[in-house]
Amino acid sequence: MNDPTRPPAPFAWPATPTALVLATIGVGVALRLALGAAMGLGVDEAYTVASTRNWMLSYFDHPPLHVWMLSAVRDLTGSDHRLVLRLPFIAMFAGTTWMMFRLGAKLFGDWAGAWAALALNLAPVLTLSAGGWIVPDGPLMFFLLATTLCLSEALFGAGRARPTLWWTLAGACLGFAFLSKYHAALFALGVLAYLVATPGRRAPLGRPGPWLGAGIALLLFAPVLIWNAENDWVSFLFQGGRGTAGDGLRPDRVLTSLLGQAVWLLPWIWAPLVWRLYRGLRDGPGGGPAAERAWFLCWLGLPIIAVFTIIPLWGGRGLPHRWIIKSAIPISAVLTIAGCLAVALRILAVLKRPDLLNDPFIERGLWKR
Questions:
Q1: What angle do CA 168, 169, 171 make, to 5 degrees?
Q2: Is residue 135 in a domain?
Q3: Residues in CB range of 88: below 8 A, 6 or more apart
Q4: Is 76 within the bounds of a domain?
Q5: Residue 3, domain member (yes or no)
Q6: SS3 assignment, position 315
Q7: Across residues 155-168, what is the average pLDDT?
Q8: Which carries the bigger pLDDT value, residue 345 or residue 192?
Q9: Which domain holds residue 69?
Q10: Residue 37 CB contacts under 8 Å (≥ 6 apart), including other chains
Q11: Residue 4 lies in a domain
């Protein structure tokens, strides 16, 4: 039986969304294994490996999760080979890809999730750096997507019958995101902003679920707080110093930040991402279920995107563009990148089969499901 929500496929491969995602994961893992074996450790990776020689509750420039992971691998395997050390990060990105698929499928349909997962793997900074190097961005992406999946279940799925459970799970995943990188605090701000800004979504704030989840997240983050308290809050001061006033207003650095994002992500992915973020916020949540889900994703990514794009205006030095990409775009990509690729494939299909112009899927559009 034909599924009217399935985008017309101009190619014979793969026949199902799941097949496309599994193929994406398989090819991606093979590529990262080959690169992981061939490439020596980068500067950040070598620094992390050196950090494992002194186990601590947290570290100077980042929370400790990626260092703890690496310490566990070295202890379990007794190996310092670069590929062995990179294996958990490669495995995590495979999990990130699958969760991207499941999140997109839950919110907008299976094919939307499949294209989002594919696009995630086509962005160079995501598939190469966060996807297989020994850096904190891989765990951050993994746990932010896990948090978003739990939230989507509590807000839009069958989990609405047991919201406290899903808010608790979301809090646990967010706690591990806190242990990965400080950026996760801005993601949490986006969740709160979504609940406050959305009519009909403020009710959870009067129930125990969100507050229980927040408590669990803070409890998991406690090692970082303890270490910083014992070391004069040096890590917070170091990272916070990146956003302090510098040599006057520098609009050129904001432009550099935007161009850097486009280059790291690829312009044909970045441009529709920005457009859909704007459209999602402009249209608001009132256009039906899909519109509210788009609104939800936009708010999750907005604080990170806004803060790290604007700070270079006055900051003493520009912030790495990849911070924004690895922290916020994986969430918003479900909405934007999937739409971009699905539209492109539909155009190819229509060129080959003009009769598809009357397909109800095309008439309704991807996000009016």
A1: 65
A2: yes
A3: 69, 70, 73
A4: yes
A5: no
A6: strand
A7: 86
A8: 192
A9: 17-364
A10: 82, 83
A11: no
Q: Which helix (H) or strand (E) holds 90?
A: helix 82-108
Per the CB < 8 A criterion, the answer to whether 174 and 143 are in contact is yes
Q: Which two tokens mark 96?
A: 């990130």
Phi and psi at residue 203, to the nearest 5° = -55, -40
Amino acid type, 80: D
Number of residues written out for the chain: 369
Q: What is the DSSP annotation of 116-152?
A: HHHHHHHSHIIIIIIHHSSSTHHHHHHHHHHHHHHHH
> Residue 108: what residue type?
F
What is the rounded distance in angstroms from the CA atom of residue 193 to the CA atom of residue 202? 10
DSSP state of 178: H
**Per-residue confidence at 362, pLDDT binned at 50, 70, 90?**
very low
Q: Give the torsion sign (CA, 346, 351, 354, 355).
A: negative
Place of tokens 């009710």: 203
Q: Tell me the range of 26-40, 291-305, 355-369 where mean pLDDT is highest.
A: 26-40
pTM: 0.85
pLDDT band at 86 (very low <50, low <70, confident <90, very high): very high
What is the largest distance, in Å, between two alpha-carbon atoms of the chain? 69
To the nearest 10 degrees (0 to 180), the angle between helices 137-156 and 184-197 is 20
Helix orientation angle between 137-156 and 163-178, rounded to the nearest 10 degrees = 170
Q: Strand, coil or helix: what is 207? A: coil
Q: Are 17 and 110 within 8 A, CB to CB?
A: yes
Q: Please give the Cα distance from 105 to 5 (Å, whole number).
A: 12
Model confidence at 178: pLDDT above 60: yes
Q: Which residues contact 95 (CB under 8 A, 6 or more apart)?
A: 142
* Torsional sign, CA 235, 240, 246, 251: positive
User: What is the rounded end-to-end Cα distance, in angstroms, of the chain?
Assistant: 18
Residue with tokens 């280059």: 263
Using one digit for the tens of pLDDT, what is the confidence trace for 296-318? 988 888 888 888 777 777 765 55
Q: How many domains does the chain have?
A: 1
Q: Which residues contact 13 (CB under 8 A, 6 or more apart)?
A: 20, 23
Question: CB-based contacts of 329: which residues, under 8 Å, 6+ apart?
Answer: 123, 126, 265, 273, 301, 305
d(CA 163, CA 205): 12
